[in-house]
Every structure is written in structure tokens, then in C-alpha cells.
């Protein structure tokens, strides 16, 4: 019974479409004949007549489409065409009798009629030529073994997406509202049927005159971007310029969704260059200065992504990014904004001496040190500091409080931050006086502990820093005092290729080898076996240290006898 009922409905629906088609076809000659009688506004009516003459072939193409009898879009299109044709006949009769309210009013009505005819022809062409009907009504053979409920869901979503491409703006607005609701409830199925043409239609709606439509559209696009889908399609269909315009002058919601979209899209270097090319830097910087917490953080993150591309850094500097990021480091609303600012400064100063000087002159070193005084120092800020210390005098660094900051980072920072701090020590310790101050500040025990770090690069950097500091005798004494120094350094003699700290471990142990106690410890922890392999590998200092330890071992044997 249910199947019979469905079949009956389908037959009635098909009859309804055929009747609508016949009705529209009958209206065309009536409208054409009446239009040709009109003597007033000849230019406008000539254009209207030329469009009316295109409708029969459009209707014929539409009716011969395989999906004509299966899709509600065809029925609605026929209704829209019939309505326009009736309006054409009515306006033509008024013009023939010259019984209209005013010349300007009629001119406006005729222009609106021309627009409706254009829309009807465009929508018919879209339905026929672009495959919208086929997308909105996929046959069961294509849908395969999906459940009937899933088939219905997919077809409904396809039809909804198709509606974004046809009809007047208000109809698209309704379709957008429905899509927005569906996205919230069933994003997975929307993504499953979304096609490039649908994405292009959404991008076009970003420039609609209605702020509400733009807001809904950018919300849907933001969901698509955050899902990790369609990013290439969105960019290739031109989503960046309208997103940037929304960041500049959209509503609060539009701005937030647009900047979050740009944040995600800017993870691609190619897209980042396009953002700069479309003038996106200035509005992003302005959001960092005056946006709410979410927008500010998203703008800072986007600019950080942009700053990772070396060739655009000068363009960023010309827009004043250095001052803005330093200010954000001090006054950012969210901690995340400050972290992005630090990372951006790290990127900007990684390879450009001019930008380093800009950051220094704007007070960047002081701001970074103040930021690092927080409870969990992050790698990016220490990395920025590492990039800058070579361009600042030792006296200035000490006066700004660099040494207590390094101790704090080595104690409380993430492993990446600790590694960057050890790297800073390597860079600043060019003079004996600086080595002395670093040792007196309490860095050595923390660096020795860092030799136990899980990552090879962290162990290597710590060993390098210790090696540099041990040039000074009082620092060597400090290393000797630490019970973990020799065991940790011997472990770093491991000859495997993954261990890049071995040359620094050899150097440190060589400095400790004049001490009998240290030599005995080295031998007891297996240093001789490691050093034999390192000598074969020609690691600098390994042969000399091996000889010294072997001599000490022989003396120890003779003394026992």
C-alpha cells in the first residue's frame, strides 16, 4: 500500500510538471505578441523581446533533461518562468494602453522585469548545462548500497546545495539558512556530497549585498574550513578577497568567522602569499590592535603563519608588524595571543638583520624577557631571544636581566624552551666575563640535568653549552662538584649516528680528565670502550682522552701490585 501511494504521488507530480510546462509554453507567444505591440520605451522592450525569444528553447531543453520529472527544482523553475511571463503580459498591456502611473516608475518596472528574465534564463541554463539537476537527483545505481534513509538525506542535501546556485537572492538566503542548520546537525553528510560548484556558489554569496546573507555564508564557510575540507577549492574559487573585506568591515560575527577561516587557510605557504597579495596584512594588524579576544588571537596566529614565509617578511615590517607584535606580547588579551606574537617575532628575526634591529629598537628584548618571566616559558619566545642576543651588547643583556631569565627557563620551561635557552648561552658566552657570570647565575647544574633529556638535540645543545662554559676554571670546578656530570657525559660518548652530542661530551670529559676522581669515574662508567670506537671515527679529542684514561688505568694496576 505504501509503495502504491508513493507511485501515485510520483505520477501526480509528473503530471503537475507536464501541466506547468504546457502552461509556460502557452504563455510565451501571448507575452511575445503583446510585447511587440508596445510603442513606448522601445529600447527596453526590444531587450525584453530578445529574452522572451530565448525561453522556448530553454523550456524544451529543461523538459528533455533525464531528471525533469524527478526533481522539485524543475517544477519551481517552471513556476518562476510562468510568473515572469504573466508579469510581462501585464506590463505590456499597460504600456500599449499607456495607462501607467509614471514614466520613471514604468522604466523601473521594466528594468526589474529584464532582471527577472535574465535570472530565469540563467537558472534554466544552470540546471541544464552544469549538472545541478544530476547532482541533486543521483540515481540509485550511483548511490550503490547506501541505506534508503542515507540516500534520501544525501539527495535532500544535494537539492539544498543546488538551491544556492539558482533563484533570486531571497530564495538563496532561505537555502543558506537551511544549509546552516543542516551543517550544525549533520556536517558529515553535507561534506560527503559537497561539490566544487557548491563551493563556488557559497563564495559568490560572500559578496551579497545583504549583511545577514554574508554573515550566514561566512559561518558555513568557516565550518567547511575548520573541518579540513574544500580548502583548495575555496582558495581557487576566490574566497580570500571577500574574507579579507569581511575582516575589514563585516559585522562582529562576520569578522570573527572570516579571521578564523583565514587562520586555517594561512597554514599553506601558497595561500599565505595570496593573503599578502590581496592586501590582507593591514586588516589583520588592525584586529591585533583592537579586536576582541578571539579575533585578536586568530589574527595574531594568521600573521604568525604569514611570517613563516621569508619573502613576505619585509612587507609585514612595512605595515608595522614589529611594534604591534611587541605590544601584543605585553598586552594581549589571551595567553594564546602572546604566544603567537612571540612566535611571529621569532620568525621575523630568524634570518633578517634589519628586522632584528627593528625588534631591538622597539624594546623587543625587554618585552620578551618580561614575557618569559611567566610560569611556563615557551620555546618561541626563547627562540626569538636567541635570534636577537648576537645583536645586543653583553652589558645591555645583563642589565635587562637575561641571566635570571635563562635560569628560570632552564628550571621551568618546556623542553624546547630549555633547549633554546642552552642555545642562547652558547651564543652569548663569547667573553670570559660572560662565561663567569653565567656560571655564577646557577646555569651549570641545570645544564647537567638537561644532559638526561629525551631528545638528542636537547642533549647536544646542553653539552655544547657546558663545553663552552668549561673554558673557565671556576666553571670546571662547578661541573666537577655535580655528581651527575661525569655519568651523564659518559653516556653521551655513545658512538651511534643518532647521538650528535659526542664531540661535546669528549670536550667536557677532556677538561675534567686531569682530576683523578673524575678519571676513575669515567673508567668505571665505561668511557674507554666508547672512546676506542670514537677514536676510530676520528672524533676530535677522543684519542687524547682515551690515552689519558688508559695511562691512568695502568698506573692504577701497578699501584695495586
Could you explain the architecture of this structure?
- The structure is a single chain.
- The chain has a domain at 20-130.
- The chain has 35 helices and no strands.
- It is elongated and about 120 Å long.
- It has 561 residues and is mainly α.
- It is 78% helix and 0% strand.
- It comes from Vigna radiata var. radiata.
- Keywords: Repeat.
- Pfam families: Arm (PF00514), DUF7032 (PF23005).
- ARM repeats lie at residues 238-280.
Task: Set down the secondary structure blueprint.
Blueprint: H1 2-37, H2 42-52, H3 55-63, H4 72-97, H5 103-129, H6 132-136, H7 140-143, H8 148-163, H9 169-193, H10 196-205, H11 211-226, H12 231-236, H13 240-249, H14 252-265, H15 269-277, H16 281-290, H17 293-307, H18 313-318, H19 321-331, H20 335-348, H21 353-361, H22 364-372, H23 379-389, H24 394-399, H25 402-412, H26 415-428, H27 432-441, H28 443-450, H29 456-469, H30 473-481, H31 485-491, H32 502-512, H33 516-524, H34 527-536, H35 542-560
Largest sheet: none
* Euclidean distance between termini CA atoms: 110 Å
What structural class results from the helix and strand content? mainly alpha
Number of strand elements:
0
Determine the fraction of residues in helical runs and give it as a percent range. over 70%
Number of helices: 35
Based on Cα principal axes, name the global outline: elongated
* Rg calculated over all Cα atoms: 37 Å
Mean pLDDT over the full residue set? 88
Could you give a quick summary of the protein structure above?
By secondary structure, this protein is mainly alpha-helical.
